[in-house]
Amino acid sequence: MKMIGISPRFASLLAVSAILAGSSLYAAETGKAELTGIKGSVKVDEQPAAVGDSVKPGQSISTGAGAQANLYLGDNGPTVVVLPDSSISFDELTLDKSGAETVVTTKINLKVGTVAGYVKKTSSQSSYIVKGPTVSAVIRTSEYQITDNGTVAVWSGCVTVSYRGVSYEVCGGQMFDPAAASVVANTVVLPVGMPSGTLQQSANVKLPAIVPTRPNPPASPTTTSGGGN
User: Would you say 159 and 115 are in contact if contact means Cβ atoms under 8 Å apart?
Assistant: First the structure.
């Protein structure tokens, strides 16, 4: 019986094809953040930054007094705003397109100050997490702002806040107040540069009141008006 062999050249082509196929299936694409707006002193890894600069995962971006940095993250955001006297880094910005749906992973490390952002809808397997000194927040299709003291303000969508081992659900028009360890009405003004910033000019415009849940007080005795002793 005559055996049919495979030429070395054809075998090499098969090997290269297998490597390329494996790369497309398992390699996640690394995203980046681009500076689209700068006010005042903004630095990337302690070097002065300019509009158009890219901030890669692992690099830190910091703002001075009265300064602000607006960033575009594409599918990993799309919008992040670093407010004055703040410092953040992107621990992870990845896109995995190997499956039926693109899996987006965004991890922001809030070192000091305040960061805000707009998160668009992504696949169910995607994740967007902001970790601060006192809280961590899982964010879903939302406009949010997080401060290093643990305050989390939400204008749209919902955020799951973890604080001292307890989880709180904070949705549009609400904020998490670490001083009270509870969810209250949002009194924070939306930062300039956020998608609906022009619609929110006051902290008290169209924000639903949050009524704390308390035990009902004892019923008072019924009295008849006009009656004498």
Answer: no
Structure tokens of 219? Answer: 């019923």
Q: What is the per-residue pLDDT across 106-144, written as a single tens digit (0 to 9) for each? A: 999 999 999 999 999 989 999 999 999 999 999 999 999
Residue 134: closest CA among 110, 104, 101: 110
Residue 8 identity (one-letter amino acid) = P
- The H or E element spanning position 10 is helix 8-26
- Just give the CATH number of 27-185: 2.60.120.1440
Domain boundaries, the chain: 27-185
The pair of structure tokens assigned to 47 is 């070097």
Which of left, alpha, beta for 197 (phi over 0: left; psi -120 to 50: alpha)?
alpha
pTM comes to 0.74
In the chain the first and final C-alpha atoms are separated, in Å, by: 122
Structure tokens at 32: 């980046």
